[in-house]
Amino acid sequence: MRPRTAVLWAAFLAVHVLVAWQGWVYPSQPMGDVVLVYEPWSASAVTGGAIVGITEPWVYPQLALLPMLLAKLLAWPLVGLVGISGAYLIGWAVLVTAADAVAFGVLVGRTGTASRRSAGWFWTAALLLLGPIAMYRIDAVTVALGVIGGLWLIKRPIVATVLLTIAAWIKIWPGALVLAAVVAARGRIRVLLTAAAACAAIVLMLFLLGSGRHVLGFLTEQTGRGMQIEAVAATPFLWMAHFGAASIDYSFEILTFQIAAPGAEVLAGLLTPVMVLVVAAVLAIGIVKATRGASFPRLFPPLALALVVTLIVTNKVGSPQFQTWLIAPVILWIIFDRTRSGLPAGIVLVLCALTCLIYPLSYDALLRAEMLPVLVLTVRNLLLVALLVIGVRAMVRVPAARMARRT
């Protein structure tokens, strides 16, 4: 292994250890979801109780239960030493680190190129800046799958599409990478048919397991949610809360803090159709560029990033772990088109740092709608909108085939 690659590997693994430790010492219990909901869900499944997504509706796609069960298995030998909760947290950290290490091996290997090392350093920095929320959420597992699937889209499109489809049945966002590939790849029909076949196989398996009417419950369970305080669209309401014209309430049904203000429920209901419209508009731009002969390395990265950012900006949920979704598209942008990846990569790193400042470091103050965390969150949300604009602008500037031959 080359010295520069060895240093990169050491930094990547060291950051995982540091971030895992931060989950234990940072305020606001950033690993709370892992121990308070993932562990009980997995325990219920293995002890003959309710199986989320199978015997009862669930907010996540059903395959999200698999990494939770795997963490339970990894935790089992440690239960006698540190208790059930501590063992499960360690098991989860080991699982995420192992998944990331596999993806990192695909990314940089033993003798990574300059662009692959740059992507590796970006990933390492993003984890460090985002902090424990980058590891202690189910989203962390999908980042590794998104990186591997994205890197294999050119040489192993069928395997890549299957991986990305599986990831989308853990957390929906990797489906944006599949959509981007369907638009930008030359073998788009093969990608589309592979994704459809993988979805059909997963749905059939779920029906055989008894999921029945709960197969698509992760979609219907989201419809009744209110506006979460960290959502981009909630920003004006947070300022209203700061000045006493709105309130922040806790929803015991979905275990999150939401905005209570005139017009908030109406806006929350409008965001889903707005998301559909913006996704359609982004895809339309990508389709136009693809039909004019735009190359995959130039079109896919900004299209993938724009789709992923759209899922965040137009979402009535603004969970901090959503920032992990941005890591894979930027890594792929660095690999496929390094010279134009600097600005989006820099903005994503700033977004990671600002998100960590909000959650978990100043979350209690945010719940009181104090000015400083509300201001930080406002800047973070404006940068998300700016990142969407940058992604769309990069798509618009992708040259057609004839223009590309002239340059």
Describe this structure in words.
The chain has a two-stranded antiparallel sheet. With 407 residues, it is an all-alpha fold. The two termini are 37 Å apart. 68% of the residues lie in helices and 2% in strands. The protein is globular, with a radius of gyration of 21 Å. Helix 6 runs parallel beside helix 14 and helix 13 packs antiparallel against helix 17. The protein has one domain.
Class from secondary-structure proportions? mainly alpha
Amino- and carboxy-terminal Cα gap: 37 Å
Across the major sheet, the strand order is 1-2
**Helical fraction:** 55-70%
The profile of the biggest β sheet is: 2 strands, antiparallel
In sequence order, what are the helices and strands, one letter per element?
HHHHHHHHHHHEEHHHHHHH
Q: List low-confidence stretches.
A: 403-407
- Give the strand content: under 5%
Strand tally is 2
Mean pLDDT: 94
- Number of domains in the coordinates? 1
